[in-house]
Fold each of these.
Amino acid sequence: MQLHDRTILITGASSGIGRCVAERLAGERNRLIISARRDRELQAVARQVRERGGQCLALAADALDESAAAAVVARAAEHFGRIDAALLNIGEGPAYHMGKASAADIRRCMRLNYDVTVNYLAPLIAHMKEHGGGLIAHTNSLAGLLGVPMQGPYSAAKAAVHVLFDTCRTELRRERIRFVCTYPGFIATERVAGDGIPAPFEISPERCAAYIIRAMERETRDAPFPWRTAWLTRLLRLLPKPLAGRAMLGFAPADYG
Ligand SMILES: NC(=O)c1ccc[n+]([C@@H]2O[C@H](COP(=O)([O-])OP(=O)(O)OC[C@H]3O[C@@H](n4cnc5c(N)ncnc54)[C@H](OP(=O)(O)O)[C@@H]3O)[C@@H](O)[C@H]2O)c1
């Protein structure tokens, strides 16, 4: 799907990767619906999009609230008629050592990454079924392909989304709804600056946005990037698990655990 002259919903667009994707898609005569909780930041992104020639509807909403997410999809559909594509980008990966994390910490991570995605996914599928198809993409993570030290709950939540997307792809093929999972490596957004987690082969959010848009346009089912971190991840998945675990601990900070 060429992301030109399309109606595209981007969740988590007030900062970081989502913001960069919105700004990059602005100049292509696209109609964007952007969403996140912080209204002031969202309005600033909307101004940028309009200055670059795109149309933009900014809707502040908390994705943890199922009815608020459904209302964003409904408002977008009412305003623009239909939604052609969506990037479900909301997520957060607080660092937890599994020797210290409580059950509540782990569930919280699931809410911050899984619930915020499915609260948009379900109404979007219903909308696209009614309108003859569309494209739904997700900002997953290479951490969703492995049990990464200090990122266990985050890895598990992202893995849950990619498995769910696999089923969606199979079950909704006839409805012409396509699903794209993108798996960024380390991205230098403000959120992760100074979080203490080593970030080999880190790339800028602007480069990350370019990778995501390319994966959406090519409708790549699973798009891991950048290539160095993607290959490292592939290698770790091929190794026997105890060996892979020890190798990953090699990247852990000195005060780990
Ligand atoms: N940075 C990395 O190294 C990296 C690597 C791989 C994958 N990722 C993934 O990339 C995505 C974006 O991350 P980022 O690094 O760009 O961080 P970010 O700047 O914090 O972006 C997260 C976005 O989600 C929004 N958000 C968070 N919770 C929300 C909620 N409950 N309801 C509505 N909006 C919410 C935030 O806006 P508000 O606070 O205004 O709501 C913000 O716009 C995440 O899914 C993350 O897991 C990041």
Amino acid sequence: MSQKSSDNGASLSQNGTSAYTFTKEQLAEIEVLKTKYPEVQAVTLPVLWMAQDTFGHVDPEVQRLVAYTLDLPESHVHGVAEFYTQYFKTPKGKHVLDVCTCLSCHLCGGMDTLGYLENKLGIKAGETTPDGQFTLQEAECLGACGYAPMMQITNDVYVNHLTPEKVDQVLDQLASGDTPDFESIPMPLVSTTSNNEAAGGSDE
Ligand code: FES
């Protein structure tokens, strides 16, 4: 399905039903992206990111805009958006707190952390505070099991080894406009001592 552009360069879906539009600059950026991949389907991911950065979410109407812009079936864009939890299918708060409650985090107090945040924010997992500041979500494993319990903030920084004190500190930082420090995870998680050294021998 083709696109048409209004005088100010905003892109409208052919049937004009989309409430969202990309700017002229964004459409130009999308054209550049298309040249970097062998198939236009692959551009779905970065264009969904662009849309989420612009509109704050990729609800069905935004997905429709992406589909029309890339001339792809809406079902394809919908499938990609639904597959990745990092794409917000509904409007979220300014800060999205993804608390991992998968096995390792669960065993290390992930549910306690989630409960603490629910009490502190006065909402349940899946809800947004009335002031629109925080959305609280329960997340599947985020790949930082060795640093449990942990949470990710708005698809960005990881905060590891959570305690109530640390949660308080993070909420204060976010409320005052600061971004908590990213807590990097050293990889790989293997011993630097060789088997031979561990056995008391020499590597030479
Ligand atoms: S179980 Fe929480 S990061 Fe893997």
